[in-house]
Design a protein that fits this description.
By secondary structure, this protein is mainly beta. The protein has a single domain (about 5-170), classed as ANL, N-terminal domain (Rossmann fold, 3-Layer(aba) Sandwich), CATH 3.40.50. It has 2 helices and 13 strands, in the order αβαββββββββββββ. It has helices at about 5-15, 35-45, and strands at about 25-30, 50-55, 60-65, 70-75, 80-85, 100-105, 115-120, 125, 135, 140-145, 150-155, 160, 165. It has a 6-stranded mixed β-sheet. α2 (about 35-45) links the parallel β1 and β2. α1 (about 5-15) packs across α2. The longest helix has 11 residues, at about 35-45. The N and C termini lie far apart (about 40 Å).
Amino acid sequence: RRLLDSAEVSRLAGYGEGSYTGLRAVLASSEPLPPDLRDAVTFAWRCEVFDHYGLTESAYGGGVECVAHDGLHWREADLWLEIVDPASGCPMPEGECGEIVITTLTREALPLVRYRTGDVAAVLPGPCRCGSPLRRLGRVVGRLVSDENGGRRVATPEKGNAHERDADAYS
Protein backbone atom coordinates (compact mmCIF):
# COMPACT_ATOMS: atom_id res chain seq x y z
CA ARG A 1 0.00 0.00 0.00
CA ARG A 2 1.21 3.46 -0.84
CA LEU A 3 -0.35 6.90 -0.82
CA LEU A 4 0.19 8.94 -3.97
CA ASP A 5 -0.59 12.57 -4.67
CA SER A 6 -2.25 13.70 -7.93
CA ALA A 7 1.08 14.51 -9.60
CA GLU A 8 2.44 11.02 -8.89
CA VAL A 9 -0.77 9.37 -10.09
CA SER A 10 -0.66 11.44 -13.27
CA ARG A 11 2.95 10.44 -13.92
CA LEU A 12 2.32 6.75 -13.21
CA ALA A 13 -0.86 6.60 -15.30
CA GLY A 14 1.26 7.18 -18.40
CA TYR A 15 3.57 4.23 -17.75
CA GLY A 16 2.90 0.58 -18.51
CA GLU A 17 -0.63 1.00 -19.77
CA GLY A 18 -2.57 -2.12 -18.91
CA SER A 19 0.29 -3.71 -16.97
CA TYR A 20 -1.11 -2.90 -13.52
CA THR A 21 -3.83 -5.53 -13.80
CA GLY A 22 -3.34 -6.68 -10.19
CA LEU A 23 -5.18 -3.62 -8.93
CA ARG A 24 -8.90 -4.00 -8.35
CA ALA A 25 -9.66 -0.39 -7.47
CA VAL A 26 -8.19 3.00 -6.63
CA LEU A 27 -9.65 5.10 -3.81
CA ALA A 28 -9.03 8.81 -4.42
CA SER A 29 -9.14 10.89 -1.26
CA SER A 30 -7.68 14.15 0.00
CA GLU A 31 -8.83 15.79 -3.24
CA PRO A 32 -10.93 14.46 -6.11
CA LEU A 33 -9.04 13.40 -9.21
CA PRO A 34 -9.78 15.62 -12.20
CA PRO A 35 -11.96 13.71 -14.71
CA ASP A 36 -9.18 13.39 -17.32
CA LEU A 37 -6.74 11.96 -14.75
CA ARG A 38 -9.44 9.62 -13.42
CA ASP A 39 -10.04 8.35 -16.98
CA ALA A 40 -6.28 7.90 -17.52
CA VAL A 41 -5.94 5.84 -14.32
CA THR A 42 -8.97 3.70 -15.24
CA PHE A 43 -7.53 3.04 -18.71
CA ALA A 44 -3.89 2.54 -17.73
CA TRP A 45 -4.44 0.42 -14.64
CA ARG A 46 -7.63 -1.35 -15.80
CA CYS A 47 -9.44 -0.76 -12.55
CA GLU A 48 -12.26 1.35 -11.19
CA VAL A 49 -11.57 4.65 -9.46
CA PHE A 50 -13.72 5.65 -6.49
CA ASP A 51 -13.81 9.08 -4.85
CA HIS A 52 -13.87 9.52 -1.08
CA TYR A 53 -14.74 12.68 0.84
CA GLY A 54 -13.73 13.33 4.41
CA LEU A 55 -11.99 15.75 6.72
CA THR A 56 -9.30 15.30 9.33
CA GLU A 57 -11.49 17.34 11.69
CA SER A 58 -14.34 14.82 11.41
CA ALA A 59 -12.11 11.75 11.79
CA TYR A 60 -11.95 11.35 7.99
CA GLY A 61 -14.86 9.35 6.63
CA GLY A 62 -17.74 11.32 5.19
CA GLY A 63 -18.80 9.81 1.91
CA VAL A 64 -17.59 7.24 -0.58
CA GLU A 65 -18.54 6.56 -4.18
CA CYS A 66 -20.31 3.29 -5.03
CA VAL A 67 -20.10 1.11 -8.15
CA ALA A 68 -22.80 3.21 -9.85
CA HIS A 69 -20.40 6.21 -9.76
CA ASP A 70 -23.37 8.47 -9.07
CA GLY A 71 -22.20 10.61 -6.15
CA LEU A 72 -20.74 9.84 -2.74
CA HIS A 73 -22.92 7.93 -0.26
CA TRP A 74 -22.91 9.89 2.97
CA ARG A 75 -22.24 8.12 6.31
CA GLU A 76 -25.44 9.39 7.90
CA ALA A 77 -25.05 7.31 11.06
CA ASP A 78 -21.89 9.25 11.93
CA LEU A 79 -22.22 12.68 10.30
CA TRP A 80 -25.12 15.03 9.62
CA LEU A 81 -24.67 16.80 6.28
CA GLU A 82 -26.05 20.20 5.30
CA ILE A 83 -25.49 22.35 2.23
CA VAL A 84 -25.83 26.05 3.03
CA ASP A 85 -25.65 29.37 1.23
CA PRO A 86 -22.05 30.56 1.80
CA ALA A 87 -23.14 34.14 2.55
CA SER A 88 -26.22 33.62 4.73
CA GLY A 89 -25.70 30.13 6.16
CA CYS A 90 -29.29 29.26 5.17
CA PRO A 91 -29.99 25.73 3.85
CA MET A 92 -29.85 25.25 0.08
CA PRO A 93 -32.42 23.15 -1.80
CA GLU A 94 -31.41 19.62 -2.79
CA GLY A 95 -29.46 19.68 -6.04
CA GLU A 96 -28.09 23.21 -5.60
CA CYS A 97 -24.44 23.94 -4.75
CA GLY A 98 -23.46 25.55 -1.48
CA GLU A 99 -20.99 25.14 1.35
CA ILE A 100 -20.74 21.71 2.99
CA VAL A 101 -21.54 21.89 6.73
CA ILE A 102 -21.18 18.83 8.96
CA THR A 103 -22.15 17.83 12.47
CA THR A 104 -20.49 14.77 13.99
CA LEU A 105 -22.97 12.40 15.62
CA THR A 106 -20.72 9.78 17.21
CA ARG A 107 -17.57 11.62 18.30
CA GLU A 108 -17.34 11.98 22.06
CA ALA A 109 -14.12 14.00 22.12
CA LEU A 110 -14.20 17.30 20.23
CA PRO A 111 -17.56 16.93 18.49
CA LEU A 112 -18.23 19.28 15.60
CA VAL A 113 -21.53 21.15 15.46
CA ARG A 114 -22.44 22.80 12.14
CA TYR A 115 -18.79 22.87 11.10
CA ARG A 116 -18.38 24.93 7.92
CA THR A 117 -15.89 23.08 5.74
CA GLY A 118 -15.34 25.70 3.05
CA ASP A 119 -15.96 23.01 0.40
CA VAL A 120 -18.66 23.60 -2.23
CA ALA A 121 -20.95 20.81 -3.49
CA ALA A 122 -24.61 19.77 -3.67
CA VAL A 123 -26.70 16.95 -2.22
CA LEU A 124 -27.89 14.98 -5.24
CA PRO A 125 -31.66 14.52 -5.60
CA GLY A 126 -33.34 11.14 -5.81
CA PRO A 127 -32.09 7.63 -5.09
CA CYS A 128 -28.85 6.16 -6.39
CA ARG A 129 -28.98 3.54 -9.15
CA CYS A 130 -27.19 1.10 -6.81
CA GLY A 131 -30.26 1.00 -4.54
CA SER A 132 -28.63 2.46 -1.41
CA PRO A 133 -30.98 4.54 0.74
CA LEU A 134 -28.16 6.88 1.81
CA ARG A 135 -28.13 10.49 0.62
CA ARG A 136 -25.48 11.34 -1.96
CA LEU A 137 -23.05 14.20 -2.10
CA GLY A 138 -22.16 15.45 -5.57
CA ARG A 139 -18.65 16.22 -6.72
CA VAL A 140 -16.85 18.93 -4.73
CA VAL A 141 -16.67 21.74 -7.28
CA GLY A 142 -14.41 24.06 -5.33
CA ARG A 143 -13.35 25.62 -2.08
CA LEU A 144 -14.32 28.95 -0.57
CA VAL A 145 -11.34 31.26 -0.17
CA SER A 146 -11.17 34.80 1.17
CA ASP A 147 -10.38 37.63 -1.18
CA GLU A 148 -8.56 40.89 -0.50
CA ASN A 149 -11.85 42.77 0.04
CA GLY A 150 -13.11 40.49 2.81
CA GLY A 151 -15.46 38.60 0.49
CA ARG A 152 -15.30 34.93 -0.43
CA ARG A 153 -14.93 33.30 -3.81
CA VAL A 154 -14.86 29.71 -5.01
CA ALA A 155 -11.50 28.35 -6.15
CA THR A 156 -11.89 25.25 -8.32
CA PRO A 157 -9.32 22.46 -7.92
CA GLU A 158 -9.23 21.34 -11.55
CA LYS A 159 -7.83 24.65 -12.76
CA GLY A 160 -5.67 25.39 -9.73
CA ASN A 161 -7.01 28.71 -8.56
CA ALA A 162 -7.14 30.14 -12.06
CA HIS A 163 -10.88 29.56 -12.39
CA GLU A 164 -12.59 31.33 -9.53
CA ARG A 165 -16.15 32.51 -9.03
CA ASP A 166 -17.81 34.73 -6.47
CA ALA A 167 -19.40 32.71 -3.69
CA ASP A 168 -22.67 34.49 -4.56
CA ALA A 169 -22.73 32.47 -7.80
CA TYR A 170 -23.76 29.46 -5.69
CA SER A 171 -26.55 31.15 -3.76
